[in-house]
Amino acid sequence: LFAIRTIQERTGKDLGATFLSGTTISNSLTELYLLFKYLRPKELERQDIRCFDAWAAIFAKKTTDFEFNVTNNIVQKERFRYFIKVPELAAFYNEITDYRTAEDVGVDRPDKNEILHHIPPTPDQEDFIGRLMKFAQTGDATLLGRPPLSETEEKAKMLIATDYARKMALDMRMVTPDYEDHPDNKASHCARMIAEYYHKYEAQKGTQFVFSDLGTYQPGENWNVYSEIKRKLSEDYGIPAHEVRFIQECKSEKARKAVIDAMNAGTVRVLFGSTSMLGTGVNAQKRCVAIHHLDTPWRPFDLEQRDGRGVRADNEIAKLYAGNKVDVVIYAVEKSLDSYKFNLLHCKQTFISQLKSGAMGARTIDEGAMDEKSGMNFSEYMAILSGNTDLLDKAKLEKRIASLEGERKSFNKGKRESEFKLESKTGELRNNTAYIHAMTEDWEKFLAAVQTDKAGNRLNPIKIEGLDSTDEKVIGKRLQEIAKNAATGGLYTQIGELYGFPIKVISERSVSDGLEFIDNRFVVEGNYKYKYNNGHLAMADTHAAATNFLNALEKIPSIIDQYKEKNAVLEREIPQLQEIAGKTWKKEEELKGLKSELVALDRKIQLELTPSVSGTISEQCEQIPKNTSINLIRDYTIDQQTIPKQHYRRNMKL
Predict the structure, then answer these.
(1) How many other CB atoms are found less than 10 A from the CB of residue 341?
(2) 526 alpha carbon, distance to own chain's centre
(3) What's the domain of life for this entry (predicted)?
(4) Would residue 93 count as lying in a domain?
(5) Residue 79 pLDDT more than 70?
(6) Total domain count, the chain
(7) Which of 29, 152, 177, 430 has the fewest CB atoms within 10 Å around its CB?
(8) What percent of the chain has pLDDT over 70?
(9) Is 357 in the same domain as 463?
(10) CB contact at 8 A, 623 and 403
């Protein structure tokens, strides 16, 4: 920052530094503040944004999530979740970015074929899910087979709960090694899928990547998910152990390069790794046919980097033998956070991509309720673990609504452009037609008055005011004097006539090589002002000067033809523009229906997640958090007409 400010101070402007990145936003729109702070300090200052709080006050909105604390009371937790004025934020961002996708620059790479592989929970997982829900509600860590929470851990209860939920979804042995293997756990499903791809592309030696940031391989460790899946591949599916490798085994750059070369050669067929060790800097895509995600990373950027190991240029096997597609398999245990977390990343990636490309349609976006610093909010955590799919339905609805709003924005933009073009071209056609009519009158007037000699050549009976001569040299010399000395003050001033058409001169300011001077130009005027070889330069030849005006009138038919050609083009374009401008967006009702559906679903979720209260009216009111909104108070089982006045003052925030 100090270096960039030093550069910017030299010019006093937001100039001098260029950032180059494929991932300017890796996870959250809050990251944009730093980008603006570095590159647009003057503009931030102009907008009176001098710190993050000021930026957030304009573009972000804090939300309150409700949780139970360890004493079973409802507590509020604030965080940034919603971003507002998104189109303005996108415009601000696009002022300083030049964004190109792989498609924009013509990178030849395979398509990504995402497959969400649902896995029913095992009996052990079902049991543990129930205990997780009780732990999230009570904070009783002994339910999970661990010591009670410390004072520090109590503040991070939902992060601990989220972490346990992730481990449980991957494999129960991640929670404690006391659990046994199960034929329906994630390791078993993944091993089966890997084996299917292995045998399907055996002739081509197709390769696969397997990603997990949990349960990674540690040398000397008794049990980990990587080794468990490798064991199943070897024992259950007959895949040679030396063809399955872990990136963590590579202790040197030389060993790492050898494994990458072996993947490209097809002698290693399956490579396991974490996002940090395998997600970047690995060009082993030559034979990749599938990528497996055992868990979902925290950031959209990380998921994109993982997929980039196979969805990459120079993937020969996918291009020649797999329909130019790489299958990306995401393993999701039902009633776990897997699907929600993946959908959340998808939604984030969608609006990040829309923001970068300037195609953002919605004014507000929701970043979701889950992050790596505090885990997940209590309400949504409980809903997902209980098997309530309303929140996933909500995510899908919001994604569809955002997509339709973007589509409508693009449609309306195209329609407005067509309407503007239609108005412009219709006006141009109307004006051109008027010019043609006016110039046709001039041409007919000229033909009626024109005189010819015996050879049929048109005569040039030009008359210059104050000059009684028909000699071309005398007339030309007089015109040269007028061209040199006239000063009309920017007004057309008559100096003569030809066949009843006034000849006029006008003094205009001109600039050449940085020097300003007065330039006198001539016209012969009918319904239209005709110029031909005009100005002082054309006056160098007295004969040319005297005959310029006759030549200008003789040019009228060619000018008319030019306007007719323009009109022919306009008459072809205008019906096409009328058709586009007359169209209506056909999905408006669908969008309205989806929005109504979302409102109803939000209401349903709110009612389902509202904790019940009991006791006398006063006791019930005491259980409601301070500053709870009236809408939320309605959801408590209280007749608000009978709430004592002191509780209205305490609780209700209008």
Answers:
(1) 24
(2) 56
(3) Bacteria
(4) yes
(5) no
(6) 3
(7) 152
(8) 83
(9) no
(10) no
